[in-house]
Amino acid sequence: MNGTKKRIALLGATGSIGTSTLRVLRAMPEAFELVLISAGGGNIPKLAAIAAEFKVPHAVTAAETCLPQLRSQVPAGTTAYAGEGALCDLLSTLDLDLVVSAIVGNAAILPVVAAIGAGCDIALASKEVLVAAGYPVMKLAAEKKVRILPVDSEHSALFQCLEGHSPDNVKKLILTASGGPFRGKSSAEIAGVAWADAMKHPTWSMGPKVTLDSATLMNKALEMVEAHHLFQMSEDRIDVQVHPQSIIHSIVEWRDGNQTALLSVPDMCFPIQYALTLPDRIDTGLKRLDLAQAGCLTFERVDERVFPSLAFARTAMREQGTLAAVMNAANDVAGERFRQGDIALPGIWTIIEKTMSAHQNGKDPTLDEIFAADNWARAYAAAL
Ligand code: NAD
Ligand code: MG
Q1: The pLDDT value given to residue 67
Q2: For residue 3, what is the DSSP state?
């Protein structure tokens, strides 16, 4: 990497990916300058502490009501702002080199669009952006010649395996899945699980939404659509295999039958760091993989009779339109209803299935059409 510091923004700085990103930045203080941080409402002390530690000039909270608190807690060199509009304005004007998007859910869409509009590369953890709005977002990125660099571990693995190769040589992309806490369970066993059970992920420590999505395998459904957009692959070239050790992060199968995989210990710092330093590879002391110590790597197919999630993604990808946004929105609403104890875990799939069935898919959607489909789906899924 050359001598000048890269100017970066970190959206969702207080979350799980945000915290891992800060770990990566701490290990390379000479390479990056954190110019902007943001977070949702709440957790203002943490946002202010990040501003102080990294001497960040601009800090944004999503909630207007939190602005006085943020203002009173940030250090002298930091200006506090509130609201999505303020965040988007800053992203449009700050002349950044890279925006790391680690906001959970659809709240990431407009900030990412603003950053792309300003010609800024995106390191994208917020998979919901591509699931809901992949068609217009990828189109805009191509127009603006902006790179969408995957941070999701599976997509970072695929990205690294694919580098330097023509997509024509790819037979299929194989996303690996840990299987989550309910792997191997029957439908009857899953019927009565509680929120706390779903929060016990076997290999990754993550925010609550993606942890629940991992338990239902909706995370893998979202990731199939994410891969569809990132790598421009049709639904029949995207596959999933369960790999409980989470050491192989994904696999490219080539036309000649060879496969290339990417391996590391499960730590999100690996894909985050690569998105920040590529094409360079820097030794920042991350834990090394010792395959002899790992012992054995195992694989199995997803039991789709128990976990019907992947079929939703295949349908959404075949339809190529607003249906994936509807799947994503219904999943949000159903997940929240499960958290509140309003429905059982399998009710999540029922709600997604019914909402998707009731939707009139719109092809080649604009951002506005996507937001309209999303709003419709949220209302529909809430009323079921
Ligand atoms: P998290 O819940 O730990 O953190 C979410 C962050 O988003 C927080 O900083 C929160 O303040 C911020 N936020 C929430 N609502 C907001 C709003 N309305 N406006 C602005 N900011 C808001 O989530 P996470 O686990 O870090 O996941 C973030 C994203 O990364 C998700 O899309 C997830 O699917 C993806 N991801 C996470 C992991 C992981 O290991 N955690 C791995 C792969 C992909
Ligand atoms: Mg992932």
Answers
A1: 98
A2: S
Closest C-alpha to ligand 1, atom 31: 104
Cα gap 10→126, rounded to integer Å: 12
Of 204, 206, 230, 272, the one to substitute when testing ligand 1's pocket (max ligand atoms within 8 A of C-beta) is 206
Joined together, the tokens standing for residue 353 give 């299935």
Residue of 11, 14, 17, 203 to mutate, ligand 1, most atoms within 8 A of C-beta: 17
203 CB contacts (<8 Å, ≥6 apart)? Answer: 178, 244, 245, 246, 266
Alpha-carbon dihedral angle through residues 186, 188, 190, 194, given to the nearest 10 degrees: -160
Same domain, 220 and 245: yes
- The CATH number of residue 101's host domain is 3.40.50.720
pTM: 0.97
Over residues 340-354, the pLDDT tens digits come to 999 999 999 999 999
Does the residue 349 lie in any domain?
Answer: no
DSSP track, 239-252: EEEE-TT--EEEEE
What pLDDT score does 2 carry?
57
